[in-house]
Design goal:
By secondary structure, the chain is of the alpha+beta class. It has a single domain, classed as Peptide deformylase (Peptide Deformylase). Helix content is 25%, strand content 34%. The chain contains four helices and seven strands; from the N terminus they run αβββββββααα. A five-stranded antiparallel sheet has the order 1-2-3-6-7, sandwiched between helices. The longest helix is centred in the first third of the chain and has 16 residues. The protein is globular, with a radius of gyration of 15 Å.
């Protein structure tokens, strides 16, 4: 495993749409292992492949001690509404409130290509939504209810 550099807002690759993972092989496993180590080293609760410069649909999360890898994740249902403050390893020195679904169901594959579904509420749902947004080139600041505050602080979208 190796630490990878976290891509920061302003770098164009962070705004590109990721491609589906097709090969469930050693290079994917190495990427997932590196992402996990990078996420933990930076005190994150989630990390998407584009945040380490890889435009593939892969995320790792660790919410309340539950670690998961989601390859080619797709949110298939959502319920409710929840507003909480978020931060991001790619957006330093800013936290902002974002409206997300309270509950989601996501379908994905594991590192070996086996499909599964996962249902999550509150922080797990929020984290998955946040990371799936990264796969589509969307950052939490784009959805933040505090976007004006971010821009006044000198932040750019």
């Amino acid at each position: 495993m190796a630490l990878r550099n976290v891509v920061k807002i302003g770098e164009s690759s962070l705004r590109k749409k990721s491609k589906p993972v097709k090969d469930f092989d050693e290079s994917l496993w190495e990427l997932l292992d590196d992402m996990k180590e990078t996420m933990y080293q930076n005190d994150g609760m989630g990390l998407a492949a584009p945040q380490v410069g890889v435009l593939r649909r892969a995320i790792v999360i660790d919410v309340n001690g539950m670690f998961a890898e989601l390859i080619n994740p797709e949110i298939i249902s959502q319920k409710g509404e929840d507003i909480e403050e978020e931060g991001c390893l790619s957006v330093e020195n800013f936290r902002g409130r974002v409206k997300r679904p309270y509950e989601i169901t996501v379908k994905a594959c594991d590192r070996y290509g086996y499909p599964f579904t996962l249902k999550g509420e509150k922080w797990l749902a929020r984290c998955i939504c946040h990371e799936v947004d990264h796969l589509d080139g969307i950052l939490f600041v784009d959805k933040s209810l505090d976007k004006d505050k971010y821009i006044k602080q000198g932040g750019s979208l």
